[in-house]
Specification:
The chain is an alpha+beta fold. 49% of the residues lie in helices and 20% in strands.
């Protein structure tokens, strides 16, 4: 089953806030859009009810036919299609306003009186009708009074359009404001993210714990894990160095006993023992050299090329004063290799150690940045390696020449480090010095 890509917290908050704002605005629009209609119709109904009472007062039901005193009817009811109408049903007779002409209201639209209903007027205009039944002089009079709502609806529609425009503007302002609020609220997360990146690059040892209470448990846990890893790494390095240092004395004693006992051993046995002791001494010397290179640097610290490479070369110049180490760095000042500093110390240390072992007198190191990748090249002026044997160099334990000291692990360790960081390793003959050239590409 395909898993959906998780959304950012900021996007999720924005979508939920947007949905809630839209729902609130929609409800507000419905209430506000309906309110003017209810209020205005209530006002019109009150006025129509007043006109109906006045008309009833002007009806004389005792005459045949019944008649309405014109003094009780507003003159607007006399103008044809004026938008103001009435109809009186008195004892089977009907009295209409002149504005109605021969138009009849439909009394059957109401189940009970008094009440209101909507209908279409004589000129096709929308009407609001108030109807009631009132007894006068033992005669029931049913009255219908109507008013044209066209002008009122036009004003209400104009109000709705203006209100919609203002609402959209306010909605836009609210969306921008809530976006800014979400960003401001999540700013501490951005700071934690930047601190994590700085921690990864070795610029800081711990995350800043001056964060909101919601983030403090996470930051404290990260710091706790970082401290635990630092302690374990430090203990491991010290233990390895101590172990190598502690083995030097027993190895020396074994070597001395072997030298004194050579006459009691067969030449073949003595040679095998001497070779084993020499190999143990080389391994312990290598581990002690790695411990000296690591020093007290904290884990996770990045390798700063312009600062750390000269330090490493200085140590090898001291170990091999008879050989010349040169280097060329082509990158911006303060550039960092996105790799652990100790891994890079081990990578460069093994490359330089191998080059110094085989070089006649010159070792050259080149470091540059090309197409968002780091290019590292270490070459020497030694005898080099035959072309058909180049790919065997990085195999653990492989030694192509038994005449030089070594145990065949250096270049294999280099390959493991390069593969760990997703890089590539290649061997060739140096066009400048003539010896072996090791080239590495790292992201």
């Amino acid at each position: 089953m395909r898993r959906l890509k998780p959304r950012h917290i900021q996007t999720r908050l924005t979508l939920w806030l947007l949905a809630s704002v839209l729902v609130l605005v929609a409800l507000f629009w419905l209430v506000t859009a309906r309110a003017p209609v209810v209020l205005t119709e209530s006002y019109v109904v009150d006025r129509l009810a007043h006109d109906a009472e006045v008309l009833i007062l002007g009806v004389d039901p005792t005459t045949a036919p019944p008649r309405l005193d014109p003094a009780y009817a507003n003159p607007i009811y006399d103008r044809p299609y004026s938008g103001h109408y009435y109809q009186l049903d008195v004892g089977g007779s009907t009295l209409r306003s002149r504005s109605l002409w021969d138009f009849d209201f439909q009394p059957g639209q109401l189940e009970s009186l008094p009440g209101t209903y909507h209908t279409t007027g004589p000129a096709g205009q929308p009407l609001l009708v108030y109807a009631d039944r009132i007894q006068k002089d033992d005669t029931w009079i049913e009255v219908h009074v109507a008013e044209d709502l066209s002008a009122l609806e036009d004003r209400i529609n104009t109000f709705r359009w203006r209100f919609a425009i203002v609402t959209l503007i306010l909605l836009g302002i609210m969306l921008v404001a809530q976006r800014l609020i979400v960003r401001a609220s999540l700013r501490p997360l951005d700071q934690v993210r930047r601190d994590c990146r700085r921690l990864q690059e070795g610029e800081i040892d711990r995350l800043d714990e001056t964060v909101p209470p919601e983030l403090r448990p996470m930051v404290e846990e990260i710091n706790h894990l970082q401290d635990a890893m630092q302690r374990r790494l430090s203990r491991s390095r010290k233990a390895l160095g101590n172990l190598a240092h502690a083995l030097k004395t027993p190895i020396t004693l074994i070597d001395q006993v072997l030298q004194r006992s050579r006459k009691d051993l067969s030449p073949e046995t003595a040679e095998r023992l001497a070779e084993g002791v020499a190999r143990m001494r080389r391994i312990t010397d290598r581990e002690l050299r790695q411990a000296r290179m690591a020093g007290e640097a904290r884990g996770g610290q990045r390798f700063e090329v312009e600062r750390d490479l000269p330090r490493l070369l200085g140590m090898f110049r001291h170990l091999h004063p008879e050989k010349t180490f040169t280097h060329r760095v082509d990158c911006a000042s303060g550039a960092l290799l996105r790799a652990d500093r100790e891994d890079m110390y081990e990578l460069f240390g093994n490359l330089l150690d191998n080059a110094a072992k085989w070089a006649e007198g010159r070792i050259q190191v080149e470091v540059s940045r090309q197409d968002r990748r780091w290019h590292i090249a270490v070459s020497d002026d030694g005898p080099g390696v035959p072309t058909d044997s180049l790919q065997e160099l990085a195999h653990r334990g492989t030694r192509l020449d038994e005449s030089r000291e070594g145990h065949g692990l250096g270049l294999a360790i280099v390959r493991e480090i390069v593969e760990l960081y997703g890089g590539s390793l290649s061997f060739s003959r140096s066009p400048d010095l003539g010896g072996l050239a090791v080239e590495i590409q790292l992201p």
